Amino acid sequence: MRVHIVGAGSIGSLIAWNLRKAVPSDHTLPISLLVKNSLFNRIPFHKHAKVTLQTAGADRPISRFDLEVVRGEDEGSGGSSIDIGTKKVLEDEKTFEGHRNNALSNARPYGSIQSLIVTTKAHQVPLAIQPLLDSNRLSPSSTIVLLTNGMGIYEHLISTLFTDPATRPHFILGTTTHGATAIGTLHFAHRGHGDLHYGVVPDPIGREHPYTSPSSSSTAVEPGKESPFYSLHHTLRTLNLLAAPLSASQEPIHTLQLRTLRKLVVNCCVNPLTAIHSVPNGKLLDNPEWVKQMKLVCEEAGEIFLRMAEQEGNDGVVGDAEGSALAMGIRRPFSGEDLMDAVVCTIKTTKENISSMLQDTRRGNVTEIDYLNGYLSRLGRVYGVETPMNDLLAEQVSILGERPKSQT
Predict the structure, then answer these.
(1) Closest by alpha carbon to 125, among 362, 363, 371, 355?
(2) Prediction pTM value
(3) What is the architecture of the domain spanning 254-407?
(4) How does the average pLDDT of the chain come out, rounded?
(5) Is 3.40.50.720 the CATH number for 3-251?
């Protein structure tokens, strides 16, 4: 089964490189990287694209990736794909445009997408998926892995793009603590080794299958191609290939949600403050005012999670409403103190790091603030908790993003 990866940045490259290393032959695991025209133009035209890991001062390229082009948010609302796996070097831009337009009018090179791993920025996820829907490449039998920062992406997708549970693809939610930095096009450095956890969202129409439990997934009999769970089974097998190199593991969705909540709060403290003050992570602990602000973020989050547990109970399911996907398994809510301990621990272990949000503001890029502090603020409104510090940080980062690059 072919695996498609959309989001050719540092994490996408990390996933692609390790999958290809685990299964060198593209016949047993063909991998397509979905890229926008702007990125496509920077990739050498050869039969199989390369993804390169920089380690210990040396480059370790791995080839045999197929490339497909999709239109992104800056290239129109329609979308399709081009296989450039056998594309020859084109002489000029006019020739390229003619080739591209001709290819867009033809049938898709690999048909429907069965397994899609999404590693874009949170706000780019709908923009990445929409062209694939427009070209009918995703279906109810597809499986989508959301491996992105922040929270609220899944809820946004099922409330806008996949509103009908009966025709919704399978979803796997994931989170990672690996640190990777983009050096160039499909060229990255693995700066910090962490782990990768993922969980299967329960079937939205209540069909029984063995894949929500890690132990059941590992012993499940391979379904036939006609099974509605064929792609889900094979996507989980693919992710399991990352167990050794990236410490990847499946866990129950409620356990994953708790892990993701903790990471959300850490990011809500570290990312906006480092971006606002333009400092590496470790500097946050040197300023008493910034420490106070982080404690307030944690206290607001802790109160939200307490209210969530009280109102939703212990038997919540992943649903369509903002926050319902988080209510699962919150039997002992995190306290503000628990969350602050996690923040301090993370800062100490990543003290030299430059946060992704600071990198975005320095480059003049859109940030993920709406899926971090903005998301906590929305949860606060849902559960009746005031969130003045999260509101303030979200507003300050938004203003920061509106400044000209020379001012940041």
Answers:
(1) 371
(2) 0.84
(3) Orthogonal Bundle (1.10)
(4) 84
(5) yes
